[in-house]
Amino acid sequence: MTKERIEDGLDPNRWRALLVIAIASLMVVLDASIVNIALPSAQKALHISNANRQWVVTAYSLAFGSLLLLGGRIADFVGRKKIFIIGLLGFAGASALGGIASTQALLFGARALQGAFGALLAPAALSLINVTFSIPKERARAFGVYGAISGGGAAIGLILGGTLTEYANWRWCLGVNVPIALIAVALAVPFIHESKAAGNRSYDIPGAITATLGLVSLVYGFSQAATKGWGNKGTYEFFILAAILLVAFILIQTQVKNPLLPLRVLTERNRGGSYIAALLVGTGLFAMFLFLSIYMQSVLHYSSLRSGFAFLPFSMGVIMFAGVAAQLLPKVGPRPLMTTGLAVAAVGLLFLSKITPTSSYAPHILPAMLIISSGMALFFIPSASTGLHNAGLHDAGVASAMINTSQQIGGSLGAALLNTVAINSATSYAKSHGALGKDTGIYSQVHGFSIAFEFGAGFLLLAAIVSFLFINVGKDSLVENEMAAVG
Hints:
By secondary structure, the protein is mainly alpha-helical. The chain has helices spanning 2-7, 14-45, 55-78, 80-99, 104-132, 136-167, 172-175, 177-191, 205-228, 233-255, 264-267, 269-298, 304-332, 334-352, 361-386, 392-432, 440-470, 478-486. The chain is 82% helix and 0% strand.
């Protein structure tokens, strides 16, 4: 039976391989939410300033987002199984380094390493699913498992992060990746088969360097603004350097034979609109988890575990409304869903911006979470389709990766920018409200969070406008996009 299946082109270990890929993917997905819950404890233990706390999130998302496209090419050309295993081992090593970090610099560096190895691991995992499952029905089922992990992994991370921080130590939120990764490696060796892509194997190293350094410089400029102010000369030097490097990146993409990001992928209006919207969503939304985690533990005095459970309605809301979005998408098309969803999520963030130090969870935070999560589900499902519109088989991989890349880069920029907004707003509030006495600090901090949420809502509204103006694909072309995604 096994011999016949191999001759028929079916991998007898394909479902075991999916289990391995699922374990690795779950580790990468839950890592973001697990660290958000642990952040207040890590900040206190390593004496991380408010201006620098965003680097725990930003270092990971920046490295992951800026190297994701290169990681996909490396996996295709070097060997998907080989890079998958290297990604797992590297992620485990970086996690261990972060878990034993004695300084904030070492923790930030470990998080950046996690992101870099995650950029190898994630596209290799997707590619392995694509080449391991040759029957369309089975492939769709395998991608469904992968999608369920992406949706549910964040919820698992919230509970696991809260449990580990509460009953062990925040360091275990990073250390837990080590045994998971080693188990995945042990199973990957016998169950996953090697595969490579044919054709031109050149890499766009100059493009990867200029893009990464340009984004790092941009984020660091925001960080400088938080400590030295927007009027400081040193702050703008980093913004100027970022502009030079990012323009250089675009020029390189027009000149090299095998560009990291073929500009034709961006120029189709539906794809380009989807990437811009995803970037704006990452900028406006991802910092919400950072600030809410601090608010729950520092202001509401929730334990780490209780904070994890308090975030669960958001994950559940996304999962529930994803089903609604999937049902509506073939009937109304992507633009109404994306525009409406983003507008609804913006309203939720504005509602959240009304919190004060005397607010409580049920009447003030929970409704906002449910509103935001329902809106984001309406956006995420159709944006995955429009991001692949007319990409064709040749560009389907890079087009798909660009959706994740846009969100991750947006998240890193948003964490830096909105953290700066929160700090500057808190400082101004403290100067003008000294009469509050010993309560000045807490009222100032929460005021900073409120202003940051308002800015976040503005980015989501801007994303809604972009979706309305750029997305014009009809519901009839959705089947074609789904075929491109799994082709």
